[in-house]
Amino acid sequence: MKQLLRPARLAPGARVAVVAPSGPVAEERLQAGLDVLRGFGLDPVAAPHVLDRHGALGHLAGTDADRAADLQAAWCDPAVDAVLCARGGYGAQRMVDLLDWRAMRAAGPKVFVGFSDITVLHQAFATRLGLVTLHGPAAAGVDFIKHARAQEHLRDTLFAPEKVRTLTSGGALAPGRARGVTLGGCLSMLVSDLGTPHARPDARGGLLMLEDVGEQPYRIDRMLTQLLRTGWLDGVTGVALGSWAGCGPYDAVRAVLADRLGGLGVPVVEELGFGHGEGALTVPFGMGGELDAEAGTLTLDEPALR
User: Fold this and answer.
1) What residues are annotated to the active site?
2) Which of 36, 60, 233, 298 is 20 to 30 A from 69 (CA-CA)?
């Protein structure tokens, strides 16, 4: 697994487009998120369909075609320097096959930010565009709007990424030190993406970053077991774990993680601060780095953005 192409960092006044590839977005949260981005010194613009709701399927932010059109138009607009997702939820899998990857590749690299359901798009941007992306907060998410740590870490990543090359964990589930290229995201989305046209075929050579929300320990067990049985985890060099909000008592979650991942023979660290937890940190996918379980750190070889 090779490091992917890094987009350029942002400068004050950069235009950023906010899109909704997945679930519906509350207008008041969108406006609050846009205000935070303006506070960064950015020029945020909302995509035309960002506040849409699907007529029959209330869990979607408008039709698949409109959500795909918003993302593609923003990405291909030369005046836009970054594309941020308003929220996760569900729906990226329904629109990802509608994107014109040839046109998006021709548009050149730019910053892409999102998490949760956006894991599907992180995988597609890696396999189709060969591009580093940022697993970071949703622009209209409560955890972003209300938490200074999430805001500050994203701002540093966008403007001065050399400041945030190292993340510190809460401890180790398995010892060791390993090098690799970061990848991953929401566990349930990685599993549901298996075998699809835009997914990574495996995690070989990667530092796998995993988190999830609202999944009981037995379901986490089932999903990790599926990754193990399919061979998707063969050759992974290390695992970094984020938040497991709403997944039951952490001791029970931790026992499953240790049981399923401990046999890989690679370092595994926990509580690295990314995911669905409060004040979640921004982590890049597609970057070379080192995971040190003894020190409890993940250190990138270079800043996430050039």
Assistant:
1) 116, 211, 276
2) 36
pTM: 0.97
Maximal CA-CA distance, the chain: 52
